[in-house]
């Protein structure tokens, strides 16, 4: 069995901010080729732990150790959020010392030409010293290294020349990753890298990390992503760090089993203590007093177990939505775009669609393609380039804006809610408590809130208006996993209509029964769930049609009623793709795994189920990438 070298480790780390304990007694070890995901509620100390390991944050107790010359690359949560120049300029700033050396070499060479005698010898010696340093730092190769890395992370020449202030979040994330990789790290640390990536970017990052030769640690709330890239989970909660083997799904199983086991052990010990205390109280005097004192001594030496702690959850209950007409949104000959400096920019055309009541529609497409512009066009905030979009009878929309940037910064949490609806202080407190704003937290200013807290406040402001059609733009960005699960539960229970833009594949898979794909200047509709779409494509992949190398998006016309989770879509235009023997073999392997999973489920072999589940997820991921190639 191969023994891996330790890249970084820590023993009994503790950190406080004033009187607030962030984490304590944290011991960890990262070996080469480790694939670690860090999870935990917002504010639990995930980023603080990363900063401590990087040496950017002081800590109170403990020890950090790593071999000499270990290189660490870091991509922070807000990658390249400041700076001037182009993306290429920012990446090149990592070579600032080499560029400075080049300038000094040029200056030194000029001095050699312009001097004589002893002064010329000194100039030659200086030039030789500078040249040795330049060579030892990889000066002859850094341009080639940069070209290889930017190509590897998918940055085109056009993107490299984009001013930093105009770059998208996904482009900044890739650029920050390129900068980190240029240092050839032994350990790569990524803090929330998926927040600004679209489907194409997510698939690229998953593929990149699966082939990355060094160790990496990734902080993320994206369950779909964690299932595909990590082999170990670190959970930070209640100021402690616990390690679990496997991906996110396996961690959830192990965590649930652990809580059940702890609850049983705690109840067993509590029952024992109660029996002993009853015996001691009854027989502390009399014939059995000696036995009672003996039991009392034993009881005093027992290490008392703590009751299992359960995560405090966000309780988002959706009010009953008022009735609407059968059709809630209707488009006619619609073209979506905007006017820039007097020029009309047409983004894409929308066929004549009708969104029916009690349906959930997911809008999917690459970053910058115009999904938010579409939502604003539906809401009437941006006029259509051509055609019309109309709301149905008695429709009352509620709009969640991406980034929650519409909340005034100088208001308190309480004031931000009361700005939307006039409530008594007691009613407002009670409502905000369901979104985990309690006690003095309701008097904190909006500008001091984290991204996740702003998201929860934006949801509170949205739901207090009791809309019957929710229009959500990237609602899970910055939300931690408990908040995401609470949002999902609320949306599942919501009896109105939902239209949302998201790259959260877990959210789309769980909620949507109608899909709008924005691609190549057009919207293509698929009636059915995300899993229906994947299954439909998988089946049609193996048809004997060889018309085109590109997968066509299956197209359907109308939306059906909400919640048929197992509903299979009706006739779908089959996609055309070149048949591949390797893909056919992949499908056969998936079928074999599914058969084995059925057998393992019948026998109740949990370990085998987890192992087969990981293999099935890996194979399915490969299949999805082939089926989703149209997005590339």
What is the strand arrangement across the widest sheet?
A: 5-6-7-3-8-9
Largest sheet: 6 strands, mixed
What is the strand content? 15-25%
What is the average of the pLDDT values?
83
Number of helices: 20
Assembly state of the chains shown: single chain
Shape: globular
Give the total of beta strands. Answer: 19
The first-to-last residue Cα distance is 40 Å
Low-confidence stretches: 544-580
Radius of gyration: 29 Å
What percent of residues adopt helix (DSSP H or I)? Answer: 40-55%
Alpha-beta content class: alpha/beta
Describe the structure in your own words.
It is a single chain. Helix 3 runs antiparallel to helix 4, helix 5 crosses helix 7 and helix 19 packs antiparallel against helix 20. The strands form 4 sheets. A 6-stranded mixed sheet has the order 5-6-7-3-8-9, sandwiched between helices. Strands 15-16-17-13-18-19 form a 6-stranded mixed sheet, sandwiched between helices. It is globular. About 6% of the residues have low confidence. The protein is 42% helix and 19% strand. With 632 residues, the chain is α/β, with parallel strands linked by helices. It has 20 helices and 19 strands. A hairpin with a 2-residue loop joins strand 18 and strand 19.
In short:
The protein has 632 residues and is an alpha/beta fold. The protein has 20 helices and 19 strands.
Essential attributes:
single chain; 632 residues; alpha/beta; 6-stranded mixed beta sheet; 42% helix
How would the blueprint of this fold be written?
Elements: E1 6-17, E2 20-31, E3 35-39, H1 46-54, E4 61-65, E5 72-75, H2 87-92, H3 96-114, H4 117-136, H5 142-152, H6 157-160, H7 169-181, E6 187-191, H8 199-210, E7 215-219, H9 223-229, E8 232-237, E9 240-245, H10 248-283, H11 289-301, E10 327-340, E11 343-350, E12 354-356, E13 360-364, H12 371-379, E14 386-391, E15 397-400, H13 413-418, H14 425-433, H15 451-463, E16 469-473, H16 481-493, E17 497-501, H17 505-511, E18 514-519, E19 522-527, H18 530-541, H19 581-603, H20 606-627
Parallel strand pairs: 3-7, 3-8, 5-6, 6-7, 13-17, 13-18, 15-16, 16-17
Antiparallel strand pairs: 1-2, 1-4, 8-9, 10-11, 10-12, 10-14, 18-19
Helix pairs in contact: 3-4, 5-7, 10-11, 19-20
